[in-house]
Every structure is written in C-alpha cells, then in structure tokens.
C-alpha cells in the first residue's frame, strides 16, 4: 500500500484540496480529506504524461540502436521525467531498420514498462514535405506491404503517420480495420484532400504546422482542415522552435480537446541517416535542417501555461487525457480517479516533479 498525504488533485476539472490518496495493488482505492495536517497542501497530483511521438531519451536514439537494452534505458529515463506511457517513434528508414525495431519491440513486450508500442512516422510520406526525413526511403504503400508489415508487427505497431493523398483507400482502411491509429502528416494534401482523409477515418494529424502546407487565405490547406473538421485531432510541439507560442495559443482555443502534446524528442546521434546535433535548445541535422525537439512533456506543459495562456488543467489534459483517449488507453491513463491504475506524478508549487508513481510503485527521480 502507498499513501500520498495532503495533496491536491483535479477531478472533473474541479480542484480537490487537502486530500490523502491511497493506492493498493497499483490501483487508486481511496481519496479522503487529510486529517493529519492543517497546512494548506502545496503539492499537486496529476496523471502521468503520455507521449505518442518520441524518438529517444537517456542518450539512446531507438532507430540507431534498436536493442532491448536501449529501449529499457529510454523507458527508465522517461519514467523519471514523468512519462508513464509512450510510443517509440521511428522515422523514415530502410526496411531492415524498421524490421529490427519491430523485432526488438516484440522481444521487449513481455517486460515493457511504459513503452506502449511503436509509432511509424514514414516511409509512406509525401516527398514534398519531408522535413528531416531521408528522401531515398520514401515510397507509396502497397496493400500487400501493409499486410506483411502488420502481420510481422503482431500488434506492436500502434500508430502510423502517412500522407493520405498518395495512398490508396484500401491501404488506409486496412490500417484502420487493424486498430492502427492513422495520422495525417508529412503531407501536401489540399484542404479538400485532408477533409476527405479525416472523413475516411484518419483520426489525427502529426505535429500540426510542421511538414505540411501553411494556412493561406486562398489555399487553406491541412491546418485549416483540422480546425474546420468536427473530429480530427492534432499533435503539436510546444517549444517555440517548431511552432510559435502565439500559434499554439490560437490553435488550442480552436481545437480544445482535439489537440494534444508530443515532444518529438530526439537525442544526439552521430551514426545512421539521422545524425542529430544539439545547437542551443534545438536539434538539427548536419545540413542545419531542424529535426526533433529537446522537449520533455513537463517542459511542454509548462510552456503552455507560461507562454501560451493555456490553463494548467487544459495543459495537463493535452499531455494526459487527450492522447490516452486517442489510443484507447483512457481507462488506464489520463485520470486521477478511484479504481484507475496509479500512473501519477506529484508536482510541487513550481510544477516540478517530486515523485513519479507507476502502476502504484514509487519511482526514484
């Protein structure tokens, strides 16, 4: 049993103050007013973060070192930083690298902690909107290739970013039928093509504004399609490098529960096609192209609150509840509620993590 005394937490958007939480067998079993302290609680308990797009952590870029050991190092590093669930992302690469990453994820699955599976960002992208992706590996998907990929993946492929304007409808439908979250990204789709893709069932959009056409008053493009659709979601990188804080601000006002945070984080790497170098607070490729971020999920939440005029409760939902719902894990992640698994963070009054609780166990930070 674990007891967290004299804390605050949000329940249905209401701040519940000065309570004790009891955790038994990994489940939150009790929330009672604290009777041991007359002091106003300064600590806040929130759900653990969910990052649906991260390439590496702890000095390990997964695609460059696709081993069980490196995946375990990434898991442990992210747990200490408050990410209790994540999808390991693989950028456009050779079939051999994809297969090795998938094989490793399957081997690791029985022992996985916070790694929930894989996000394949490519190779079925639009060559006109690649960003830092390697053009020689980009291609159109065939249905046979997708069938073989998912068969080999055996359930570890949870999400895939594609350019839908270049893919056949039967490919998209096969992914959706096999419970893969499909995200529109690295795409040059027109407004009408993007709306059509969302209407076909594509659920979300990869790193809004990046690697897609911009908003234009006569050619509205992908961002405007997301804003105008009634269901389409979008991830966003809140580092003021990939997207301006002011753009994040109006995007959140328009999308509300349809926008969620990702880090898109990488780590320094000097081998393989993705040789990320940290320059200041951003990562770039050898030619200077902006690549992944240096964000943590906590930094993204703080940026939302401190620079984007987003309330703390909304910023936390963007990092927890909304991505959890997208991947169908909202009964396990994203809430502080009785009967739910205790994947929690304890924050001090400056929003720094003092403790991570994962499946009811206290993780040393």
TrEMBL record:
Cofactor binding note from Swiss-Prot or TrEMBL: Binds 1 divalent metal cation per subunit.
Active site, per annotation: 264 (proton donor/acceptor)
Entry keywords, A to Z: Carbohydrate metabolism, Hydrolase, Metal-binding
Span of domain Amidohydrolase-related: 44-362
InterPro entries: Amidohydro-rel, GlcNAc_6-P_deAcase, Metal-dep_hydrolase_composite, Metal_Hydrolase
Gene3D superfamilies tied to this protein: Metal-dependent hydrolases, Urease, subunit C, domain 1
CC cofactor: a divalent metal cation
Binding site for Zn(2+): 121, 186, 207
One GO term of the biological process aspect: N-acetylglucosamine catabolic process
Ligand binding (substrate): 132, 210-211, 218, 242, 290-292
Molecular functions (GO terms): metal ion binding; N-acetylglucosamine-6-phosphate deacetylase activity
Family stated for the protein in its record: Belongs to the metallo-dependent hydrolases superfamily. NagA family.
Protein name: N-acetylglucosamine-6-phosphate deacetylase
């Amino acid at each position: 049993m674990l007891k967290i005394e004299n804390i605050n937490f949000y329940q249905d958007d209401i701040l519940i103050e000065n309570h004790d939480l009891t955790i038994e067998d990994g489940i939150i079993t009790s929330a009672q007013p604290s009777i041991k302290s007359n002091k106003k609680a300064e600590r806040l308990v929130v759900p653990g973060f969910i990052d649906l797009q991260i390439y590496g952590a702890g000095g390990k870029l997964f695609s460059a070192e696709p081993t069980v050991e490196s995946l375990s190092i990434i898991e442990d590093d992210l747990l200490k930083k408050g990410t209790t669930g994540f999808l390991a992302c693989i950028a456009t690469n050779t079939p051999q690298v994809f297969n090795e990453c998938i094989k490793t994820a399957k081997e690791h699955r029985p022992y996985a902690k916070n790694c929930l599976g894989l996000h394949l960002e490519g190779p079925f992208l639009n060559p006109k909107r690649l960003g830092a992706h390697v053009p020689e590996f980009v291609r159109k998907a065939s249905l046979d290739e997708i069938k073989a990929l998912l068969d080999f993946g055996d359930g570890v492929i949870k999400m895939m970013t594609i350019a839908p304007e270049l893919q056949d409808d039967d490919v998209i439908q096969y992914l959706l039928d096999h419970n893969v979250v499909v995200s529109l990204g690295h795409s040059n789709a027109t407004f009408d093509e993007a709306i059509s893709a969302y209407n076909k069932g594509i659920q979300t959009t990869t790193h809004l504004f990046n690697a897609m056409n911009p908003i234009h008053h006569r050619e509205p493009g992908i961002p405007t399609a997301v804003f105008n659709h009634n269901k389409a979601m979008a991830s966003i990188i809140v580092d003021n490098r990939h997207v301006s804080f002011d753009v994040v601000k109006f995007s959140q006002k328009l999308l509300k529960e349809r926008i969620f945070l990702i880090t898109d984080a990488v780590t320094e790497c000097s081998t393989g096609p993705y040789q990320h170098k940290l320059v200041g607070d951003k990562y770039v490729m050898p030619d200077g192209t902006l690549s992944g971020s240096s964000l943590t999920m906590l930094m993204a939440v703080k940026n939302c609150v401190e620079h984007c005029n987003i309330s703390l409760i909304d910023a936390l939902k963007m990092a927890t509840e909304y991505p959890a719902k997208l991947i169908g894990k909202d009964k396990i992640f994203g809430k502080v509620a009785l009967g739910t698994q205790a994947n929690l963070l304890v924050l001090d009054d400056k929003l720094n993590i003092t403790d991570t609780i994962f499946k009811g166990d206290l993780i040393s930070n």
